[in-house]
Amino acid sequence: QVQLVESGGGLVQAGGSLRLSCAASGRTFSSYVMGWFRQAPGKEREFVARINWDGGSTVYAGSVKGRFTISRDIAKNTVYLQMNSLKPEDTAVYYCAAGVSSVSYGDWGQGTQVTVSS
Q: Mean pLDDT over residues 36-47, rounded?
């Protein structure tokens, strides 16, 4: 059974930084795509970034490109989201997801709250 456990959320002032972690277990993630999504109050969940477990190629949403960096540590089975220059509009619950492709995420974490104050 796949488990994804996010951590690292919290309250930060605008302009600050946070690093989210997603500890993955329960299977081999080779050939998987690992993604970060977020959902703000009253809004639909939206894509933030993804990384191919093999090779490490990345894709970012336009709203975070240049500010956020997704990475993975294969030895630790962990995916990270480094978030810099945070803005109040980045406030959301952030979710980690794993899938066989970038359009099919079958496993999700419980989410971690990120709040950016102005």
A: 97
